[in-house]
Amino acid sequence: MHHRYDVLVVGAGGAGLMASLYAAKSKNVSVAVISKLYPTRSHTGAAQGGVGAALGNVNEDHWEWHMFDTIKGGDYLTDQDAAEIFAKDVIEAVYELEHMGLPFSRLDNGKIAQRKFGGHTREYGKSAVERACYAVDRTGHMILQTLYQQNVKAGTTFYNEFQVLDLIIEDNVCKGVVALELSSGEIHTFHAKAVILASGGYGRVFKITSNALSLTGDLMSIYYRKGLPLEDLEFYQFHPTGIAKLGILITEGARGEGGILRNDSGERFMERYAPTIKDLAPRDMVSRAIYREIREGRGVGKEKDAIMLDLTHLPKDIIESRLPDITDFARTYLGVDPVKELVPIQPTAHYAMGGVPTTIDGEALASEDGTQVRGLYAAGEVACVSLHGANRLGTNSLGDLIVFGRRAGLAAAKYAQKAEFETLPNNPDAFSKGLIERLRNGSGSDNAAKIRKELQDTMMMNVGIFRNGKDMEAQIQIVKELQARYKNVSVADPSARYNTELVEALELGFLLDIAEAMTASALNRKESRGAHDREDFTERNDNDWLKHTMAYRDMQNPGNVILKYKPVVLKGETLNFVPKPRVY
Fold it and tell me: Locate the FAD-dependent oxidoreductase 2 FAD-binding domain: which residues (predicted)?
């Protein structure tokens, strides 16, 4: 089955819906969105804390301070042109969402409410500032609902429950995608002038993660399989506070409201690690501090592998009114009442700083020299602009979605207005059909679920919060062995409609690709920076490693990774910030 649209968006989370909305608002542009899920079930809905924007509704604030915090939080690997555009544009974007009808929480004077969040400061690091604009602890959910309604109004066409299998790219030009319709088992070819990737991250490569089951790095993997680069995959953020054992997120807003992290003796241990902003230090720092407390025997629980989040000193009405979802999560999943009891937490794999490399307008890059894949764009967690550098600042993910999703949508629409439809290759769905047939008709006896579990366990252990060369070298061999076993995976379920066994087998292939590129990138970066913390190279090394990793699949020798590098942009339009030591 064939379809044709001027602009095609893959993914219906915040970035995809923002991109599709702005493309749909452009003149004479037909727009469609393909999604694995129904749009309002996209993972953006799990984002709780807020959107950081220097509105200054509670205390004085300026975009320059937000830009500085973003760059410092990214441990100076952030491209400063992207940070400056972001810090300015996110202010307008928040007001725009408000005008679309997003029900932000309010101050007594009627303005959008703002609260403190980790790493956000005033006067370039002097003290914490109220910058996070929020809708209680359901901010991402509200963004999804608002943008979906606006897309319906704008006439966007939706193809829900479609699994994308391939990008149609020839001679550095993207011509469309091939996707599997889950409800029928049919293969569809989508012909487009411009394609925007907004398919999210790959947290399911780890054992404990806040990510939904659907976040398996699909489009990153497909891009990588084309011999195109993935940028900065070694940087993966672990959120400090996931529900113990489950990984379900407890928003940083809980600490923004005054929550305190305590070890087994009740000590507020963050005072030792970040004396100035304590529990509101950047996420990489808090996650490492928690793991050190656990490793040194100060954890809690039967296995001494968790830490406690203390909200009991806060007024009950604050907990119930400003943090209703996490309060419900704790009561439902742990049987713990945060009003009266401490909540056991562990760091959880949360967010990919790296992804498909792009320009500030979302144009996908084919190489470290700036060559572009014409007609292909990316935004959100699947992309690397690079706003987040080595460690994303809390609240900047939702800001990223609305700022760079909008820019990608506008750029793609502008391109589509001038471009003609490129001629599709003969049998554009041949690769995808072959992929499906191999899994359906294979005679192998290896089990996809077992391979996935081994991958997640070993990635958590060897490429997690703390890393070293020996463990990562071992992980490279483990991934190669799992890839060899994956070739023997077959699907027992013969059904065409909603074949979840088939989908999970496909997703495993994507995860193995991501693990391959990620582990090689991490092993080769011989320093500690942001979320990449090496026990054998403990210092940040700006002389040798102030640069972005570009990981390519070795097309001549599958299983190997070619690593190249490109410089960090160290100056915005008006400001630049020189790398400084990490002191909080």
Answer: 6-398
Does 161 map to a domain?
no
Element holding 175 (H helix, E strand): strand 173-181
Residue found by looking up tokens 């080769």 in the block: 524
The burial class, CB within 10 Å (0-12 / 13-18 / 19+), for 173 is: middle
498: left (phi over 0), alpha (psi -120 to 50) or beta: left
- Answer yes or no: is 97 within a domain: no
For residue 101, say whether it is annotated as part of any ligand binding site. Answer: no
Residue 135, both tokens: 């809708």
Q: Euclidean distance between the first and final Cα of the chain, in Å?
A: 56
Give a yes or no: residue 174 inside a domain: no
Q: Which of 182, 531, 187 is nearest to 391 (CA)?
A: 531
> Is residue 538 annotated as involved in ligand binding?
no
Query: Can you give the pLDDT of all 584 residues of the chain as single tens digits?
Result: 899 999 999 999 999 999 999 999 999 999 999 999 999 999 998 888 899 999 999 999 999 999 999 999 999 999 999 999 999 999 999 999 999 999 999 999 999 999 998 889 999 989 999 999 999 889 999 999 999 999 999 999 999 999 999 999 999 999 999 999 999 999 999 999 999 999 999 999 999 999 999 999 999 999 999 999 999 999 999 989 999 988 888 887 888 889 999 999 999 999 999 998 899 887 778 988 998 999 899 999 888 989 999 999 999 998 988 888 889 999 999 999 999 999 999 999 999 999 999 999 999 999 999 999 999 999 999 999 999 999 999 899 999 999 999 999 999 999 999 999 999 999 999 999 999 999 988 777 789 999 999 999 999 999 999 999 999 999 999 999 999 999 999 999 989 999 999 999 999 999 999 999 999 999 999 999 999 999 999 999 999 999 999 999 999 988 899 999 999 999 888 888 988 876 55
Known binding residue 14? Answer is yes
Which two tokens mark 443?
């005679």
Domain that holds residue 338: 239-350
In a domain, 485, yes or no: no
Asked if residue 37 belongs to a known ligand binding site, the reply is: yes
**Domain total for the chain?**
1
Q: What strands lie across the sheet with 561-567, from one edge to the other?
A: 230-231, 547-553, 561-567
Distance CA 399, CA 383 (A): 14
Type and span of the H or E element at 294: helix 283-295
Q: Is 450 annotated as a binding residue?
A: no
Name the residues annotated as catalytic: 283
Nearest-10 Cα torsion for 378, 383, 385, 390 = 180
pTM for the full model? 0.93
Q: Is 16 annotated for ligand binding? A: yes
CATH number at 335 reads 3.90.700.10
Distance CA 167, CA 135 (A): 36
